[in-house]
Each structure stands twice: as C-alpha cells, then as structure tokens.
Design brief:
With about 120 residues, the chain is an alpha+beta fold. It is built from three helices and six strands.
C-alpha cells in the first residue's frame, strides 16, 4: 500500500533554525531518505519552494491562466512530501515517526487509495 507523508512549515520556523545548524539538519534528512530508499519503502522525497513561489492555474478559453497564489488562510503550508510503498499502515506510522523533527512537529500520513496506471 502507498502512503503520502506531509511536512508543514513556514518562514518563521525556518528562520528560527540557526544558520550553522542547517548542514546537520539536512544531513539528518538525507540519512532518513537513504535509509528508506535502501529498504525500497521510500519512492520519492520532495521539498517544495516557499509558498510565495506557488501559482494558481486555471483554464480560460482553453489556455492556462496563471495567477499568484495560493492565498493561504493558515500560518503553515506544505513544505515537503514523501511517497512510501510499505506493507501496512502501521509500518507507514513507524517510518513517519522516524522522520527527523517528528518529536517536535507532526507528520501527516495519508493512504493513497488509487493511482493512474503506469502505461497511460
């Protein structure tokens, strides 16, 4: 079964991390990624740009209409996401709990109910 792990953040949170600590924090995340890539359970890990770089796209007259956004109603936004393929929901919880900073910030775990066939 596949699971989506989501991490939330905001600029205030990132700014609270001392600049000299960033290399160590990145190394912790890289170690987590490598550990679960080696087990075959981590399909992908993706860090997102700051929310200010996000855009909203609609279709207008058959063409993309791009505007600034999203206009967040919340202080935090999705900062990164991970796609797992593991044997059980319990295993997804174990992996989420092993995420660096999971002792400080929650990790959302969402079951993936379906996906498009690979041969589309």
């Amino acid at each position: 079964m596949k699971y989506l792990l989501m991490i939330y953040g905001n600029q205030e949170k990132w700014d609270s991390i001392p600049a000299e600590s960033w290399p160590e924090e990145i190394a912790k995340q890289d170690a987590f990624n490598k550990k679960y890539q080696q087990t075959g359970e981590l399909i992908g890990a993706y860090g997102l740009a700051d929310a200010a770089a996000a855009k909203l796209v609609r279709r207008a007259d058959g063409a993309p209409a791009v505007t600034d956004g999203p206009y967040l109603e919340t202080k935090e936004y999705m900062a990164s996401f991970y796609l797992l393929d593991c044997e059980s929901e319990q295993r997804a919880y174990e992996i989420a709990a092993d995420m660096p900073w999971a002792h400080l910030e929650p990790v959302e775990v969402w079951p993936v109910l379906h996906e498009a066939p690979a041969d589309l």
